[in-house]
Design goal:
Cytidine Deaminase, domain 2; binds NADP nicotinamide-adenine-dinucleotide phosphate; nine-stranded mixed beta sheet; 15 strands; 2 domains; about 400 residues; Dihydrofolate Reductase, subunit A; single chain
Length: about 400
C-alpha cells in the first residue's frame, strides 16, 4: 500500500512537543525539538534535554537506526553554527549527509541568527524556513528575551473570580478556581525557573509554591518581595524550602539575617520601602533565572504592570462573584482605556467550569533577515504557501 507523504507542518508540531519536554532543564539554552524523517515517516526523535548536553538535532541524528544520508531533518530552531558547550550542529548535519532541513524559526541569538542557514546552504543542504513559525517562536520566548535584552520573562498568573477578586474581604482565597485549574497551574510552575509573590500573600496564605499536583521533579525557586522585613518566619517556605528561597528586601533586617542563616538567597536592593523592580531583574538575570511566574497578590502584580515588566498573562476565571476590594491587579493602573494592556495571541480553554485566558502583553520580534534565498512555506514543493 502506498504511504502518504509527511506534512511538514504536522511534523514540526511534533518537534515543538518534543522541545517542550526540555522546558525547565535547558536554561540558559532554548528548548528545541527535532526529528529525522524520510518522505513518509519519522525515523527518530530528539530534544535538547539539559544545559551543556547534546542539542536536539544531534540527539535525533544519533538515535536514527538507519543511515541518515539523503534524509530530512526537521527542527524547531535554526541549528547552531558556533562552538558552545557542544560542537556546531550544522557540522553534524552536513557530515551526516542530511539532504533537506526544515526549520521552524530563525535563532534570535545574534551570534547565530542566519549563520546556521548560511552554513547549511553553502554545504549543499536544502534549507526550508518558517514552518509553524509562531508556535516555534512561542516556545522559546523566554530565551529570546534573555538573549536579546538580557532580561527575563515575566508571566503573571491569577486565579480570580468573575469580578476580578483573588480573595474575600476577610482574606479567604481557598479555593476560588477548580481542581483542574490548580493542576494546570502546577504544570506552569514546573516550566518556570521561579515563582514570585509579595509578603502579603506569604503571611496570609502560607503557600508552598512547589510542584505537587502533577508528576514532575522540578522545584522552582520561590521569590518573596518583602521590603520592610515583615515576613513571618513560621511559614512553609521557610520550614520546607529555605534553600530555594530568594528573599528580596530593601535593607538587611532581622528576617533577612535569619533566612540567610537558613541558606536562603538574600537580595537587598536599598531604597526606602519601595523595591526597584528593574534592579531586581538585573539580580535575577545574574542568577540565570529567565522565566518568572508572578502569583500575586494584587499589590505586587500591580507594581510589575506599572513598571511595564509583564510579558504574558495566564488567567483562570471562576464563575463566582466575591465583591470587596482584593483585586487581582492593583497598582496605579493606566489612565485611559487606550493605554490598557490589550492582550495578543489569545488562547482560551475551559477547566471544569473555569475559563482560562492567556495572552501576550509584550511582543518579541524575531530577527529581521532576508530569507528570500530560503524556501518558506507549507511544504517542500516550493509553493511558498505560508499558512501556519
Ligand atoms: N487567588 C489567588 O490566586 C491569590 C494569589 C495570591 C494572593 N492572593 C490573595 O491576595 C491577598 C494578598 O494580596 P496583597 O496584594 O495584599 O499582598 P501581596 O501582593 O502578596 O503583598 C504586597 C506587599 O508586598 C510588598 N511588595 C510587593 N512588591 C513590592 C514592591 N515592588 N515594592 C515594595 N514592596 C513591594 C509590599 O510590602 P509592604 O506592605 O511591607 O510594603 C506590599 O504591601 C491575600 O488575601 C491572598 O489570599 C490570592
Amino acid at each position: 500500500m502506498e504511504k502518504n507523504l509527511l506534512n511538514p507542518l504536522d511534523v514540526m508540531q511534533e518537534c515543538a512537543q518534543l522541545a517542550l519536554l526540555g522546558k525547565g532543564y535547558t536554561k540558559t539554552n532554548p528548548v528545541v525539538g527535532a526529528v529525522v524523517a524520510n518522505q513518509t515517516e519519522i525515523l527518530s526523535r530528539g530534544w535538547h534535554q539539559s544545559f551543556g548536553g547534546p542539542h536536539a538535532e544531534v540527539n535525533a541524528i544519533d538515535s536514527c537506526l538507519v543511515p541518515t544520508e539523503g534524509l530530512d531533518l526537521y527542527v524547531t530552531l535554526e541549528p547552531c553554527s558556533h562552538q558552545g558547550k557542544t560542537p556546531p550542529c550544522v557540522e553534524k548535519i552536513v557530515s551526516s549527509g542530511i539532504k533537506r532541513v526544515f526549520i521552524g524559526v530563525v535563532d534570535p541569538n545574534p551570534v547565530n541568527a542566519g549563520k546556521g542557514l548560511e552554513y547549511l546552504k553553502k554545504h549543499g543542504v536544502e534549507v526550508y524556513v518558517g514552518y509553524m513559525e509562531d508556535l516555534c517562536a512561542s516556545i522559546i520566548e523566554d530565551f529570546a528575551k534573555y538573549i536579546t535584552d538580557k532580561k527575563h520573562y515575566y508571566t503573571f498568573k491569577t486565579a480570580q473570580s468573575l469580578d476580578g477578586k483573588i480573595a474575600t474581604s476577610t482574606g479567604d482565597s481557598k479555593w476560588i478556581t477548580s481542581k483542574a485549574s490548580r493542576e494546570y497551574t502546577h504544570y506552569m510552575r514546573a516550566v518556570s525557573d521561579a515563582i514570585l509573590v509579595g509578603v502579603g500573600t506569604v503571611n496570609a496564605d502560607d503557600p508552598e509554591l512547589n510542584v505537587r499536583h502533577i508528576k514532575s521533579d522540578r522545584d522552582p525557586f520561590k521569590i518573596v518581595l518583602d521590603p520592610n522585613g515583615r515576613m513571618l518566619l513560621d511559614r512553609k517556605l521557610v520550614k520546607n524550602s529555605a534553600d530555594k528561597l530568594i528573599y528580596v528586601t530593601c535593607n538587611d533586617n532581622d528576617v533577612s539575617d535569619k533566612l540567610n542563616g537558613l541558606g536562603a538567597d538574600i537580595i537587598t536592593l536599598g531604597g526606602d520601602g519601595q523595591l526597584d523592580l528593574n534592579k531586581l531583574s538585573d539580580e535575577l538575570v545574574k542568577r540565570d533565572i529567565l522565566n518568572v511566574m508572578i502569583e500575586g497578590g494584587g499589590k505586587t502584580t500591580g507594581k510589575f504592570f506599572d513598571a511595564g515588566l509583564v510579558d504574558k498573562v495566564n488567567m483562570f476565571i471562576a464563575p463566582i462573584l466575591l465583591g470587596g476590594d482584593t483585586v487581582s491587579i492593583a497598582g496605579k493602573g493606566v489612565a485611559s482605556v487606550a493605554e490598557g494592556y490589550r492582550l495578543k495571541e489569545i488562547q482560551t480553554k475551559q477547566f471544569e467550569s473555569d475559563l482560562y485566558i492567556s495572552g501576550k502583553v509584550t511582543d518579541f520580534k524575531q530577527p529581521i533577515l532576508d530569507l528570500t534565498e530560503y524556501v518558506r512555506g507549507c511544504c517542500a514543493c516550493g509553493c511558498s504557501r505560508d499558512d501556519d
